[in-house]
């Protein structure tokens, strides 16, 4: 006699993201020298029930750059558990802003994707993906610095390509 989990066994084996849970890295995180109001984080469900971008994405401001994070939020226990999968940044230019950058990931949903990890993320966990975003009226160097620090603090989320802070990169590479 099978178990409740038998039908999903092959799916469970297909994608096992690696996470680094390091209180030492979390403890080193700081905002020193970065112009940001860190209390301004918000979150929106990324994908609507019809498989398209959630119309609420239009609440993300266009007048700023900033940081965005794609996270899996399981609905099993309310307010318990978020898996940070990807951290990115957007600058504010004539053609780029925070909302436009988040919206640009729509191409990763379908067959014309160019980033396989993000494509898998959106296709496998789309119902549970939330975008957390932090609008920043800051220089592009401040936004990039915050992105680098966040990626390093999480020890490289599973869908990010690399850690740019050399000391953390060396430790992460040695661990895997």
Fold and architecture overview:
The protein is an alpha+beta fold. It has 6 helices and 4 strands; from the N terminus they run H-H-E-E-E-H-H-E-H-H. The chain has one domain (37-169): 3-Layer(aba) Sandwich (GIY-YIG endonuclease). A 4-stranded antiparallel β-sheet has the order 1-4-2-3. The chain is globular. The termini are far apart. The mean pLDDT is 85.
Largest sheet: 4 strands, antiparallel
- Radius of gyration of CA atoms, rounded to a whole number: 17 Å
| Averaged pLDDT | 85
What name does the CATH topology carry?
Answer: GIY-YIG endonuclease
* DSSP helical segment count: 6
Number of domains: 1
The coarse overall form would be globular
Structural class: alpha+beta
The fraction of residues in strands falls at 15-25%
Separation of the first and last Cα atoms? 38 Å
- Give the strand order, joined by hyphens, for the main sheet: 1-4-2-3
Low-confidence stretches: none
Sum up the structure in keywords.
176 residues; alpha+beta; GIY-YIG endonuclease; four-stranded antiparallel beta sheet; 16% strand; globular
Map the helices and strands.
Elements: H1 9-14, H2 23-28, E1 42-45, E2 65-72, E3 83-90, H3 98-103, H4 116-125, E4 129-136, H5 140-153, H6 166-175
Antiparallel strand pairs: 1-4, 2-3, 2-4
Concise summary:
The protein is an alpha+beta fold and 176 residues long. The protein is built from six helices and four strands, in the order ααβββααβαα.
């Amino acid at each position: 006699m099978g178990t409740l989990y038998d039908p999903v066994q092959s799916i469970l084996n297909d994608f096992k993201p690696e996470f680094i849970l390091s209180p030492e890295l979390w403890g080193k995180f700081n905002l020193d020298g970065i112009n940001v109001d860190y209390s301004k984080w918000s979150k929106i469900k990324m994908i609507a029930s019809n498989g398209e971008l959630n119309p609420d994405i239009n609440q993300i401001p266009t007048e700023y750059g900033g940081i965005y994070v794609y996270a899996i939020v399981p609905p099993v226990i309310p307010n318990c558990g978020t898996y940070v999968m990807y951290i990115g940044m957007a600058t504010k230019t004539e053609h780029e802003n925070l909302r436009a950058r988040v919206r640009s990931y729509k191409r990763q949903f379908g067959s014309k994707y160019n980033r396989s990890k993000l494509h898998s993320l959106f296709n496998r966990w789309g119902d549970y993906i939330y975008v957390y975003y932090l609008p920043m009226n800051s220089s592009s160097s401040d936004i990039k610095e915050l992105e680098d620090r966040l990626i390093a603090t999480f020890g490289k989320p599973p869908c990010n390509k690399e850690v740019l802070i050399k000391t953390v990169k060396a430790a992460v590479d040695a661990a895997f």
